[in-house]
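Students often ask why we bother predicting the structure of a whole assembly rather than each chain alone. The short answer is interfaces. A chain on its own may look different once its partners are present, and contacts between molecules only exist in the joint model. In this exercise we take two input lines together and write out one structure for the complete complex. Read the inputs first and try to guess which parts will touch.
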Amino acid sequence: MRRRVAVTGLGVVSSLGDGVEAFWRACLAGETRVAPIPESWLAYADFASRLWSPLADPDWDAYGLGRIERLQNDRTALLAMAAAFQALAAAGIGREVRDEKRNTFALCGGVAPERTGVSLGTGIGGISSALRSTLHQALTRPKGALRGLCGRLGDAEPNALMELATTERRLVAPARANPFAVAMTMPNTATSALSIKLSIVGPQRTHCAACASGTVAIGHGYRSIAAGETDLVLAGGVEYLDDDYGAIFHSFDLARTLVRGTPGDPPERANRPFDRARSGFLFSQGGGAVLVLEEMERARGRGAPCLAEVVGFAETSDAYNLMVMEPEGRQIARAITDALADAGVRPEEVDYVNAHGTGTVANDETEAAVLAQIFGPRPLVNSTKSLLGHTLGASGALEAAVTVLSLQHQTTHVCRNLEEPIADLNFVRRVEPHAIRAALSQSFAFGGHNAALVFKASC
Amino acid sequence: MSEAALREEVFARVRRVVGEVLKTPEERITLESRYQEDLKADSFDTLSLLVALEEEFDRTLEDEGSLQLATVGETVELILSLAGRTAADGSAPAAGG
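Now the answer. The structure tokens for the assembled complex follow.
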């Protein structure tokens, strides 16, 4: 018999706030954080999109993640730890120090480490660390050679000297190699770091499914508990995309996927999922969310808070194109209907859909058509990306967190900047109380990954 | 700054970093402390010490044989010698800040 799975804790680090309370308050207020891309990037390329959503550094020291650990870990690993610490505290699961030198912990409250797992998604893993390592290797000696050349030129050629010096300065690279670069670069770095940090010895799995990674990771965490493999799983997604050159951003910009601002319009109005004037997605520097998934009877037995129940999951593949969604959305529709079947929930019982809602012209069109076909115009629909922008592999986890919060509080956030909807769906236009019984969170990704999670309010 | 004062300052900073990395009370760290035998540093700790000391003194130590150092005092001497070399080169000093 399939075991039931409760969500007993949430943790969030995002451009809208560090911590669930601040995050949810900002969501309900319809806030967003949009800024021009760093001016320094403009020296390296021509950008069609010049807006992004930067991520403020959390107070790592407050999480007990000191400067030594910050040197040893990729930012995705730190984000996973911060979000997991929040989630465990919310679930009422304490930590006791296991190894002071390594700053590792054991979970309290009768949590068996052998029956506990980690399931995290990430789109591009430790790419920022990989780039830093590469840039150090590639540029350190050439920069030295350029400095030497400047010295030899003396004042004989002042213009050439200035040009050389400017070129040398623009070749930004970390001053030193990092001996932890291999571990920081690997895609499983966040999953493994979290497993070590909390002495979790059950299965640790990293799901790389591009923008669906977080959703897929939570889905497989749910299945692991439902099947009896584990009793508790820390499940979610993390992403951190930053480099001194704007190279990662530019890759998405070249693919013509990113939002374009309108001259004279405030940047906060540019990101418009499901609006006729949408132009692409808002690139987010990163974020992360972790859910504590727990076997229902265990959760009840220890009097844990039950924020929502995970009742269904499914994933499908387009088998169509690495970068383009199959326009008919056939496999998207199948992911949704399979997830509903897994949950034993009929479409008319779904009161809220947290859409993928990127804001790209083609994706929103396809998604809206699929939603209309399966659900009609009744359930509430919003796009958390209208607030956060797109955090790639973290997005599904952040949106699952919003879905759980919406079920918990029986309300949800607006679809920001939606003025002229592209479809006759029940897009959320203002925050008010709603009766939300079952809710869906869905993600679609480069590579043709489609995934959907179904949650219920009652536990 | 006199040589003795500089040595004292570098030692204080090295001791702070070593204490932070190895979670050892600073008063137990002396110039004679041996990393492996006295401070129980393993290979992972050695790498952690390397990056932390490089960060502290804002310079590369990896190519200077830092991984072979046996005692805290040898680390202090290495950093002082690098500072001396930097000063002789006329560039910014590595230690003293």
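Check your guess against this: Residues 90-97 of chain B have pLDDT under 50 and may be disordered.
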